[in-house]
Amino acid sequence: MFKHFYGLSFNPFDKSINEKDCFISVDHKQMVSRLNYLKDVRGIGVFTAPPGMGKSYALRCFAKELNPNLYQMVYICLSTVSVSEFYRQFCAMLGIDASGRKTDMFKAIQDRVYYLLKEKRKTLLVAVDESQYLNSAILRDIKMLMNVNYDSLSCFALILVGEPYFNNILEKPVHESLKQRITVHYNYQGLSSQESADYIYHKIEAAGGARSIIDDAAVNAITGFCHGTPRLIDNLMTDALTLGAQLKKQSIDAETILAASNNQSLR
Questions:
Q1: Which pTM does this prediction carry?
Q2: Residue 39 C-alpha from the chain's centroid
């Protein structure tokens, strides 16, 4: 209902928004820049942020721009699994038979990534989301998978994405060897107040709307409520637009934002 009322071609605050309409925040730019470096050096990258900051979305935007003739991205998000299940998942992503023992799958994975690099001239990028849930054995084996030719060659890039306490996990002595191999490390800072406002306006305009559908006081209220978290802004704005259309408000005001915020807190 609110799309027609506010002249929007789609809900600009929906999580499925097209990559071409991406808002380039400082965090987004920093992560993508590091990912571009990582894909060439084939090292290990760690990216952490609280939920809803947009790290998975940045990863998606990065993957969308990869040349499929030069790079192959494998995305693994089921990280609360056993070592064997992780290997089977990895094999399935690479199109390898996953019915053997762990040692067989280990060798098959190493052979495949070596083949991709040396014969196909294609670099594999393995992205593991929610890495804070990976158990120590999986983190150890991932590091071992990267050891090729007596540790003289890195055949693929490893991207570990997780919540901030993943950094604490990596500080444990058992992960010292993995930590030493980390090539790039970035912790999200969140949207600044100005970025939060720009984010809202950018999304409205991407859907064909006008900035005038929300007033300055409402934007300031959202900044105060959401503390620079894009997902919270998206949820709050969707509720605010819905309420605003129901109340026939041509411009979303701070009162509407407060009502929408109260709706959010009740969920």
A1: 0.90
A2: 16
